[in-house]
Structures are given as structure tokens and as C-alpha cells.
Design brief:
The structure holds 2 protein chains of 2 kinds.
Chain A lengths: L1 H18 L2 E5 L2 H11 L3 E5 L14 H8 L3 E4 L9 H7 L12 E3 L32 H18 L4 H23 L7 E4 L5 H7 L2 E5 L10 H14 L3 E4 L5 H11 L3 E3 L13 H13 L1
Parallel strand pairs in A: 1-2, 1-3, 3-4, 5-6, 5-7, 7-8
Chain B lengths: L1 H17 L7 H31 L8 H4 L38 E13 L3 H5 L16 E14 L4 E10 L2 E2 L3 E6 L6 E9 L20 H6 L2 E4 L1 E9 L6 E9 L17 E12 L3 E16 L6 E21 L2 E20 L8 E20 L2 E19 L2 E2 L7 E12 L2 E11 L7 E13 L7
Antiparallel strand pairs in B: 1-2, 1-19, 2-3, 3-4, 3-5, 5-6, 6-8, 8-9, 9-10, 10-11, 11-12, 12-13, 13-14, 14-15, 15-16, 15-17, 17-18, 18-19
The chains are: A alpha/beta, B mainly beta.
């Protein structure tokens, strides 16, 4: 009787990790969204950066440190996008699982094809990312690669549910492929836009439109009055199809440009959750692309 | 030609032979082959599209606004980079957690802190301006141009278990080793150990480097109880613990050699003689607010020359503090911070006037139980930030009891400060600061004006809360 009780307890103890959900901490909303697609009911996703915050300028808040302390895996964008807080966060979390080199340290950029990797860079060029344009989440192809990386990483951490992660990945792939078909039919080829920030290069590459000028003279540096004046001239001459901005960023300048040139401003969501309908990566992309077409 | 063909054929033959060719999975292999072909087809199409794109876009982008100006102007928003989107499909494999790419070198940064100082007082008056009853150490600024320091920071992970940091401010007086410490990264249970020479974790400002301060100088209570740069680097060991709780709670203890000239003094004991404990807790308030608060205590043996000129105080020190910080960041580019710290310091012991070796020197029992507070607010809109600070000593407690009798020291020390900052980028700060300083107790105000520049190059420093 006692023996069987011990066996039962032992069984229960050995089985219990299988019931525990993998704690995923994602820096950005889209990462959380994809992690949820791949992990589904076997993961518990916490997202750190609210969509109304600038991922460059986030502080490592205590609440973020606390969440990271409990993480089984930390998933981040990489390419220095989170350089302002991630090193502090990882160290302050005191969490051995998520230190660099551990399976719980997941850098999405390791799986993607990076655009605009500068040959040479210094900070006189503004906030240029020396590792390339970090906003690769606009690219379905890259998202598929990241999702596969996530499935592998989750399987390493939680081998008991590896099959489930594989299956979720397959489902996700199907969904993305179907969407890709839908999106590739959008009439974007040959369009020309002015953009506030270097956000849309991956979309431009995938859908064949062009960013002909930027409202920011250099990434992260707001435009001066003189620069805006020259830009107005350029816009008047070239008549682009729109001036692209993201919610919370560049409204004042783009409104002014629209008023001066008559070229409309288009708000393109920059992440899941940044606009009311964009609840996950799919709806975020839907909104971004339909905003461009409108 | 024949050889070439053979070379191509040979491996493919090997491949064909090596792959299992049982009838039942012909179908799945066919499917796999089809998929591969399809993927290759997609790749081809993509590359063709790219070629078209590159052909149709002349380098330089004639329609960019820069072209409307002088020809020499660089194309706006286009740093020197490989030709165009998509062409250089390099996969980034070299990201470090601190950014950059080279593993073999530690991360380096250099921060230059320089300012212009103006005052209605003469340099002689400034050099002898103290806070009687608290400290005999003047602030140490010069009228006109000052170079505070060029601060060299070096950091990198040592191995999977330790991170290493060094902070070396180079001043005109020489090079200091302000900090050199390791931090563990892989201890279990939310524990972390820091050791070497480091800035104490007590309080809000102590752990900050001068370039991260919200004003040019530290508040009065820091200056009076810890010194012009706070506690500064101390040799010792720190253990902190972040328990797995639903709320953020960080607990810390430190054992320090105790070299701070206001609290402890290097000669107080031939042994570590300063200790601290601290706690910090934090919660989110609403969608965009965060509050952090925490009490702290530091205690130890004292042997200090800073009570008054030509004196040495020996005895015991206790310092009690409480920090509170509220940060509100409703959206990009807007932030408000309200911060306050209350400090209470008690010292009991003997005050010797004159040199120890001098038989004419006198010793009298001294008890100092004094306090002070500062309150500051900072409001940021995009690249601009305005700040205001009020700091005062002798707030609730002003005991200075020499040989059993309370000494009359003069007027209550206080200051009021306003600052305006412009931050052209994340790496530059230009600060204009005005302070009305009434801390000298003699009714002689010091109207101070600072124009400060802070510039950083090298590795990106992370922003802690």
C-alpha cells in the first residue's frame, strides 16, 4: 500500500512538468502572437512592450524584469532593436534559462533574411541599425522562418509536446501561405510612397513598391523645417501614392505634409495590437497591406 | 567538357544510390521532389523580380528630396548601405546581447561630461563653501569651463557564469578605477552576486553614473550624507535576491570595505566595516504608470575628516533611507517622472579637533542625528525635457550635540533647481541648469548656472528603469 502510494507520487511528480505550460516572454506583440500560434495551449505568453511604446526607447521596468525572471524562454526581435533594455533585462532577471547561448534565449533575427545591412555605419547617420533593418516582421517569408525556429526552440525546451509544436507549425504555415496568395494579388507593384521612418522596406521588397523618400532625414532624427520644405518640393514634383506613418509616430509632420501637398497620409500599423483590429500578426498584416492599397 | 559532366554526374549518382528506393514511398519522394522544385521555382521568381527591381531603380533614387537641394547632399535617410532592399540577403548570426558583432572584443563606450559654470560668488568663496554641521567638502567646481570626466566603460560576458564591468573615469587629475566588478548570470533561485568595486545598490542615485543623473549634481542630502558623487565605488560584495512572487520585490545585502568619507572612512577598521540592506518593490499603476519604492539602511564604523576642517570623527554611523519613484510614459516621446528620497543619518562618537599626534588636540563626544529630503520632477516631450528639484536638510531632525549641548549652526540649508535639456539624439544631452543654493547657512546665496554637454560613443548603454 505504502509502496504503491510512493509509486503514484513518483508518477505524479514525473508527469507534472508535462502539464505545466512553457512560460514564453516575448518582447514585441507580433512575437507573442506567433509564439501563441506555435505553442498554443502548451505555452503561456507574456508580452513586454506595449504597442504604443517605441521599442527603441523602452526602460527595463521592474514588471518586465519580474516576468523575465519566471520565463522558460525569452523571445526577441534582435538586430539591436531591443538594445536599450534587453541586456539589463537579461542580467537583472537572474534567470539562467534565458542567458545568451541557452535554448531559452531566442533571437528571431537568427532565422531571417535581413535587408539593408550597412557596409559601413557610424552614428552620424542617425539611429542606423548596424546589423540591418530590424523590422522584418512585415515579411511573411521571414515570419515563416521565425515560426519554424520557434517550433524547434519550444521542442527543445518541452520535448514532450514537440509533435504538437510541429503540427501547429504546419497549420501556421498553411495559414500564412493562404494569406500570402491573397496578399500577392494586391495592386501594390510599382507604387511609390514617402515614409516617415525606415519601417516598410520588407513590405516594399515583397510587394514591389518603392519608398522614394523619408520624412526623417536620418533614422530616429526628426526633420528640421528646412528639410521639410525640401521634402514638400520633392513630393509636389514626384506625386507619390501616399505618405506612410505608423500610429503614435510622426503624425504632426505627415499631417503638415499632406496639408501642403495634397498627398494623403496613410497610417500603417507597426505591430500587432497597435491599432484596434490588429489583434494578431495576421490581422496586423491584413491591416497594413489594406491601408497601403486603399 | 566531358570531365565537367562527369563531375556533375558522379555526385548525383551517389545521391541516387544512397537514397532508399523502395516502391512504397515513391509517392512521398515524388511529393518531396515536387515541393523542392516548387521552392526552387519560387526562389527563381523572387530573384527575377529582384533583378527587374534593381534594373528599374537607378542608384541614388533621383526622386529623393536630397536631390532637390545641392547635389552633394547625401540622400536623406539612406546611409551607406548595400545597393538596395533584398540584394544583400545576409543572415545576421553575430548579434550579441549588447549589440555589435565582435565576440573577441569587450563592449566599449566613452562618455564625455563637460560643463560651463557661472556663479555670483568668487572662486575663493566657492572653494570654502561647505554645509556647516554636515560636510566641509566643497562641490569642487570652477567658474568657467569644467571637464568633469571622460568616462570609459568596458563590459562583456566573461563566460556563461559571469559578466564583467569596469568604469574608468579619466579626469584632469588622473585616472580612477571607479568600478570594476563581476555579476553572476547563472545562479539559481533568483540570486545574483556582484563583487569587486561597485556602486552600492542603496537608494536611487547611488547606482547611477554621473552622466545618468537627472541634474548636473546630486541633491543636498546625498552630498551631506554620502558625498558629491553619492557613495561612489566601494570594494565589497553584494548579494541580491528576486524571489518568485507575483509582485516585484528585490532584496539585497552588501558587505563593503567602507571607504566613503562621509559615512565610514578607510581607517575606521582594518576589516570590512560597512554594511547595507535594501529592498525595492514595484508595481504598475494603470496602463502607463510604474511606481518603485524601497527602504534601505547602511551602517558601520566611522573615521572621517569631513565633519569640519581640522577634525576627525570616530564612532558609528547609521543611515536610513527611503526612495520613491513614479514614472508615467503614456506614449512615445512623452514621459513624466516624480522622484524623492528621504535620508536620515545618525552618528555617535568622538570628535577630535587637531591632529591625533598633537597633544594639544581636544576630544569631545558628538552625536549627529540629521535628515534631509529631495523631491524632483521631470517632464519629457520628444527631445526636450524640463526638470525641477527642491532639496532641504534639517527637515525633521537636526541634532548636532557636541559635549552634550545642541549647537546652533545657522540657517536651514535648502536649494531650488530648474533644468532644461535638449537631447538631439540618444547619445547627446545638452543641459541648462539654474540652482538657487542656500545651503551654506550664512544667508549668502549661490546663484549657479550650468551649461552641460554629455556625449557618448561606442556600445549602446541600456536604460534601466
Amino acid at each position: 500500500m505504502r509502496k504503491s502510494a510512493i509509486v503514484l507520487i513518483a508518477l505524479f511528480l514525473s508527469a507534472s512538468p508535462a502539464f505545466a505550460k512553457v512560460k514564453v516572454v516575448a518582447t514585441l506583440q507580433w512575437i507573442g502572437s506567433v509564439a501563441h500560434e506555435i505553442g498554443n495551449r502548451h505555452v503561456e505568453v507574456t508580452t513586454l512592450v506595449k504597442p504604443n511604446q517605441d521599442p527603441h526607447l523602452v526602460d527595463a521596468k521592474p514588471s518586465m524584469i519580474l516576468a523575465t525572471r519566471k520565463a522558460d524562454i525569452l523571445m526577441y526581435n534582435g538586430l539591436d532593436l531591443e538594445i536599450g533594455y534587453l541586456p539589463v533585462l537579461i542580467e537583472s532577471s537572474r534567470n539562467p534559462n534565458i542567458q545568451p547561448g541557452k535554448p531559452g534565449n531566442f533571437d528571431g533575427s537568427h532565422f531571417v533574411t535581413v535587408l539593408e545591412k550597412p557596409i559601413s555605419v557610424d552614428r552620424s547617420m542617425g539611429d542606423v541599425h548596424p546589423l540591418g533593418n530590424p523590422h522584418y516582421h512585415y515579411s511573411a517569408r521571414n515570419i515563416l522562418a521565425v515560426a519554424e525556429g520557434m517550433a524547434n526552440a519550444l521542442s527543445t525546451i518541452d520535448p514532450a509536446h514537440a509533435d504538437s509544436y510541429r503540427a501547429n507549425l504546419a497549420t501556421f504555415r498553411e495559414k500564412v501561405r493562404a494569406k500570402q496568395k491573397e496578399w500577392s494579388g494586391l495592386p501594390l507593384k510599382g507604387k511609390r510612397y514617402v515614409a516617415y521612418h525606415k519601417y516598410f522596406e520588407y513590405l516594399a521588397a515583397d510587394y514591389g513598391f518603392k519608398i522614394v523618400a523619408y520624412v526623417e532625414p536620418k533614422p530616429g532624427i526628426p526633420p528640421s523645417a528646412g528639410y521639410i520644405e525640401r521634402l514638400i518640393e520633392t513630393i509636389k514634383e514626384t506625386r507619390p501614392d501616399g505618405i506612410l506613418l505608423t500610429p503614435y509616430y510622426g503624425r504632426r509632420e505627415t499631417d503638415f505634409l499632406t496639408q501642403k501637398t495634397g498627398v494623403r497620409s496613410i497610417v500603417v500599423p507597426h505591430d500587432a495590437g497597435s491599432t484596434p483590429g490588429a489583434k494578431d500578426w495576421f490581422s496586423f498584416m491584413d491591416q497594413a497591406l489594406s491601408a497601403l492599397v486603399k | 567538357m566531358k570531365i565537367w559532366r562527369r563531375l556533375v554526374l558522379a555526385p548525383s549518382l551517389v545521391l541516387t544510390l544512397a537514397s532508399p528506393s523502395f516502391g512504397q514511398d515513391v509517392e512521398s519522394r515524388l511529393k518531396a521532389l515536387e515541393e523542392t522544385t516548387k521552392a526552387q521555382q519560387e526562389k527563381f521568381e523572387e530573384q527575377h523580380r529582384l533583378i527587374d527591381e534593381l534594373k528599374s531603380s537607378p542608384p541614388g533614387g533621383a526622386s529623393a528630396p536630397g536631390a532637390a537641394g545641392t547635389a552633394a547632399r547625401p540622400t536623406p535617410g539612406e546611409p551607406a548601405q548595400a545597393a538596395g532592399p533584398g540584394q544583400e540577403g545576409t543572415t545576421a548570426k553575430l548579434t550579441g546581447i549588447f549589440g555589435g558583432s565582435a565576440m573577441t572584443n569587450p563592449y566599449l563606450s566613452l562618455i564625455v561630461n563637460t560643463f560651463f559654470y557661472g556663479s555670483n560668488l568668487t572662486q575663493t568663496e566657492l572653494d570654502s563653501r561647505t554645509i556647516p554641521g554636515f560636510t566641509n567638502v566643497p562641490v569642487g567646481v570652477h567658474k568657467g569651463f569644467n571637464l568633469e570626466s571622460a568616462e570609459l566603460m568596458i563590459f562583456a560576458p566573461v563566460d556563461p557564469y559571469f559578466n564583467l564591468y569596469a568604469n574608468i573615469p579619466v579626469t584632469e587629475d588622473g585616472t580612477e578605477l571607479e568600478e570594476a566588478y563581476f555579476v553572476t548570470s547563472s545562479l539559481p533561485g533568483g540570486l545574483q552576486v556582484k563583487g569587486g568595486k561597485f556602486k552600492s545598490g542603496i537608494g536611487r542615485i547611488n547606482a547611477q553614473h554621473p552622466h545618468a543623473w537627472d541634474f548636473v549634481d546630486v541633491p543636498l542630502n546625498y552630498r551631506a550624507f554620502m558625498g558629491n558623487e553619492g557613495m561612489g565605488g566601494e570594494k565589497g560584495i553584494q548579494v541580491t535576491w528576486l524571489p518568485d512572487l507575483p509582485v516585484y520585490l528585490q532584496l539585497g545585502v552588501e558587505a563593503l570595505q567602507g571607504e566613503n568619507d562621509q559615512l565610514f572612512g578607510a581607517d575606521a577598521k582594518d576589516w570590512p566595516h560597512a554594511f547595507t540592506v535594501f529592498a525595492k518593490t514595484s508595481m504598475e499603476i494603470g496602463d502607463s504608470g510604474t511606481i518603485l519604492l524601497g527602504p534601505y539602511i547602511a551602517w558601520g564604523k566611522a573615521n572621517i575628516p569631513t565633519v569640519a576642517d581640522n577634525t576627525t570623527f570616530t564612532g558609528n554611523t547609521d543611515l536610513f533611507g527611503f526612495e520613491i519613484v513614479y514614472k508615467w510614459k503614456p506614449q512615445r516621446g512623452t514621459a513624466f517622472t516624480l522622484q524623492s528620497e528621504y535620508l536620515y543619518r545618525k552618528q555617535t562618537g568622538d570628535l577630535r579637533t587637531g591632529e591625533v599626534s598633537d597633544p594639544a588636540s581636544t576630544v569631545a563626544p558628538l552625536t549627529r542625528a540629521q535628515d534631509g529630503i529631495y523631491v524632483q520632477g521631470l517632464y519629457q516631450i520628444d527631445r526636450w525635457r524640463v526638470g525641477a528639484r527642491y532639496d532641504v536638510l534639517d527637515l525633521l531632525k537636526k541634532d548636532y550635540i557636541l559635549s552634550g549641548s545642541q549647537q546652533s549652526l545657522g540657517k536651514q540649508p535648502w536649494r531650488a533647481t530648474g533644468a532644461l535639456e535638449f537631447n538631439p539624439s540618444e547619445f547627446t544631452r545638452i543641459r541648462l541648469q539654474y540652482t538657487r543654493d542656500e545651503s551654506s547657512r550664512d544667508g549668502q546665496p549661490n546663484n549657479e548656472l550650468y551649461l552641460q554637454m554629455l556625449l557618448g560613443i561606442g556600445a549602446h548603454a541600456a536604460h534601466s528603469f
